[in-house]
Amino acid sequence: MAFDILAELPKLLWLVIAVAAFLAVFGVLLLAVDGGPRTRYDWWQAACFLAPAGILLLTGLVYPVIRTTVLSFHGPGGDTWVGWGNYVWMFTRPEILLVLRNTFLWVIFAPILATATGLVYSVLVDRSRYESIAKSLLFMPMAISFVGASIIWKFVYAFRPANADQIGLLNQLLVWAGGEPRQWLLEGPLNTLLLIVVLIWIQAGFAMVILSAAIKAIPAEIVEAARIDGVNGWQQFWRITLPSIWPTVTVVLITISVQTLKIFDIVRTMTGGQFGTSVIANEMYSQAFRYGQLGHGSALAVFMFLLVIPLVLIQIRNARRTREAQSL
Amino acid sequence: MVRPIRPSHGAVVTATSLSLALLATGCDYLSGTGGTSAGRDGAGCEPFAEWADVEGGTVDIYASIRDEEGERMQRAWHDFAECTGINIRYEGSGEFEAQVQVKVDGGNAPDIAFFPQPGLLSRFVESGDALPLPDSVAKRAQEGYPEDWLQYVEHDGKLYGTPLGANVKSFVWYSPGFFEKNGYEIPQTWDDLITLSDTMADDGVKPWCAGIESGEATGWPVTDWLENVMLREHGPEVYDQWIDHEIPFDDPKVTQALDRVGDILRNPDYVNGGHGGVKSIATTSSQVGGLPILDEKCGMYLMGSFYAAQWPEGTEIAEDGDVFAFNLPTIDEEIGTPVLGGGEFAAAFSDRPEVVAVQEYLATADYANNRAQEGAWFSAHKDLDLDALDNPNDRFAAELLRDPDTVFRWDGGDYMPAAVGSGTFWRAMTNWINGSDTEDVLSYVEQSWPKS
């Protein structure tokens, strides 16, 4: 289809209007700052500049959290009070307990395996001849969206009957090894683990890049001193490398954990939550938007929020400790 | 302390007023580009004379119909829009079911939405967002469509939607050539069907193929199986009680019906031609499920009339062609063969004159015929011109729907609360194909039925 400038004119105008509106808001803000009181001018200036961010945070974050929490104590339409009913539902229905179990599997396996893969890889390729190529190879999946990666892996796990040509890599390998093709995504809990592999495939690159940088930042004196003391590779890894980069490892672990808790795309694309693979975020979306069960969806959202809080607290505590260490 | 830097006053004023001026002129321009009434009195506009005094305006329509189908639909109402000067803005979305709720809750409801699920529409009727049909529209709906259809959008004596397209979900696809070559007859009773299946199995062909994989909707074709058998085994009255939850979802009658489905779908001698064993049903896409019929790797495939679009290009769909369909045979002579089907209902969220005009037009035989001429479509409209249907299969289905003796029932899954109809029902049937116990899966659905 040809690009018709006249047909697209309204859209372009909207674009101009949006930019103009942004500038106008900014201009008004600057004017307000400019016209502020002479006394305590810096206080006034801070208030003016913080206000937009503050208002956006209140309306976009604080208010939805409160409203979701309130909704989680209400019925499907959000108008009848049901007390703890939705939470009782969540912890008594077998299919929701399965969802919680799956999320638990994800949070246990995905961050640890992704970080471990990234760590081992970065130690192995560190200072080798082909380091940059090797690192780009592992990093590349990071550039693929979750949905794209899920479609790729869906092909890897694809199933064709034993007498037909296999189109799935995994089943083809199995057939070459003399086995019968299997329907990988059908049997729990193996299917959840196979979905976790997709996340590891994407996130290992992230872990590798961060950890590799941390390894390179280990002071050369320490490594040299250890060498002179006669450590072998194994000891060097456990006694020198790992303790030196431990703060970075926890940051990577927590970042991937938070990502894992809210995992949605992979499950939705690969199985749609069928065959017992659903996770909290997927179930929350289905309950609230597909089934019209706002209460159930909100309760799941609140539960997920509660699970993320400790991770965020650890992250903040770590950041504070690092800052204190630096200021000493 | 650092002294804050103050921007120059003059520059700020200029920048602000310039952008404000730009904002104002831009908005002026956009509001000036409303609907044009060109072509209003042009030739070919006679059929639309009754809407001549509608003032134009814009009507937003939101639906799940996309791509080729969506374009055909827009072509069907193009003349109407040209002549009346009503600008119809259509948006088709693959996420319709979830997004229409978001739009309505966000105060951004479309003027008209096409609902494939009467159950979803009921949600908006209960919340008071969907409006009852104005008398002029209701009258057309009642004249054009059978009561079997309208009952699904009737709440407290008022109609809330007009039927649009239709489909028939009691079809069993087969290959006429393959049947003729082997001397197979189209079965007239369920017993015939089982005998035929056994004969095929003895001849070394898997009699049935099936595929239920459809992303998060995986499992829905089995719900069609169960509903068809419920209708044929226990009759429309019991079926209505079942989908209205007047009898429990796991009533012994339902168990009996699902076991009957299991005689076919969970029978390793019968399935799954061309795809593998029983469990391969769960991972075979519903779109490719029936294709082995063309390679004579399976004999029959139960799937809606819309499956006509899935056959590869060049496949002749006709009674003496490559593929055709028969109505799933009767189980109980007294009940006969009720037709299970679906379609869409057009419901409105506003009542501006131009919206009412569009609603009126969508309920006419003129629209139905226009749409049918674009191809691959039929409806239950009584005055639909059957000769306009290019596809013998569509014609067969439309004739079936029009027959006064036909008992029609809407796909129950689309009628039940969404938590069941598009949630646990699908999941349960998927688990059932995977080997779960019949009574377990039915009581699982019963447990999940929302308590209101």
UniProtKB/TrEMBL annotation, chain A:
<feature type="transmembrane region" description="Helical">
    <location>
        <begin position="236"/>
        <end position="258"/>
    </location>
</feature>
<keyword id="KW-0813">Transport</keyword>
<feature type="transmembrane region" description="Helical">
    <location>
        <begin position="294"/>
        <end position="314"/>
    </location>
</feature>
<feature type="transmembrane region" description="Helical">
    <location>
        <begin position="137"/>
        <end position="156"/>
    </location>
</feature>
<keyword id="KW-0472">Membrane</keyword>
<dbReference type="InterPro" id="IPR035906">
    <property type="entry name" value="MetI-like_sf"/>
</dbReference>
<protein>
    <submittedName>
        <fullName>Sugar ABC transporter permease</fullName>
    </submittedName>
</protein>
<comment type="similarity">
    <text>Belongs to the binding-protein-dependent transport system permease family.</text>
</comment>
<feature type="domain" description="ABC transmembrane type-1">
    <location>
        <begin position="100"/>
        <end position="315"/>
    </location>
</feature>
<feature type="transmembrane region" description="Helical">
    <location>
        <begin position="12"/>
        <end position="31"/>
    </location>
</feature>
<keyword id="KW-1133">Transmembrane helix</keyword>
<feature type="transmembrane region" description="Helical">
    <location>
        <begin position="193"/>
        <end position="215"/>
    </location>
</feature>
<dbReference type="Pfam" id="PF00528">
    <property type="entry name" value="BPD_transp_1"/>
</dbReference>
<dbReference type="InterPro" id="IPR051393">
    <property type="entry name" value="ABC_transporter_permease"/>
</dbReference>
<keyword id="KW-1003">Cell membrane</keyword>
<feature type="transmembrane region" description="Helical">
    <location>
        <begin position="104"/>
        <end position="125"/>
    </location>
</feature>
<keyword id="KW-0812">Transmembrane</keyword>
<feature type="transmembrane region" description="Helical">
    <location>
        <begin position="43"/>
        <end position="66"/>
    </location>
</feature>
<dbReference type="InterPro" id="IPR000515">
    <property type="entry name" value="MetI-like"/>
</dbReference>
